[in-house]
Give the backbone structure.
Amino acid sequence: MSFKSSHSLNLKLTSLFQFFLLLIAAMYIITADAQAGGSNKYPKCYIGTYLVEEGSGTASTWTLGARGVITITSSAQKALNFSDAQGAWISTGKLEAQATLVDFSFDNEGALLNIAKINVDMNFTDKNCEAVEGSFTVYFYQPDVDPLDPDSVPDNILTDTFTGQRINVEQ
C-alpha cells in the first residue's frame, strides 16, 4: 500500500468516525430533550406538581409529567371512596393544555360503582407556569361502559373550576 492510498484511507476513516460522533451527539440531545418534555406537545414549563383548589373547596395535587402523563390525588377521595385519577395531557396553545383522566368509585364493600372520565381545560397564568386555572367536567359511567368510547352515554355529569400553584422545593 502506498503512502498516498494509506493517507486517503485514514482521512476516510477519520471522516466516518467524526460523522458517527456527530450522529451520537445529535441522538443524545434529541433523546434527552424528549425525556424531559421539551417538545411543543409537552412544554417543560408545564411539567410539575400543583396544589389545586376546586371551586367546590376540595383540595388536590395535580402532577403533569413529561411525555403527557397526569395524575390527580384529591382530598375528597376517602370521603367519597374513589381512586387517584390518571390520564394524559397535551399542550393546546401558548400556556394552555387539555387533559383526560379516569378514576374509579367504590361502594362500602369495595365493589366498583362507576368509572369517571374527567376532561380538563388548563390555562397557565404566568410565563413561568407557577400558577394554573381552568375548568373540568366529570362524566360518570356504569362499570360495564367504556368511558373512552365517544358514543358511551354517562349517567351523570358535573363541572367545576379550579386554581392552583406549583409546588416548589423550599431552600
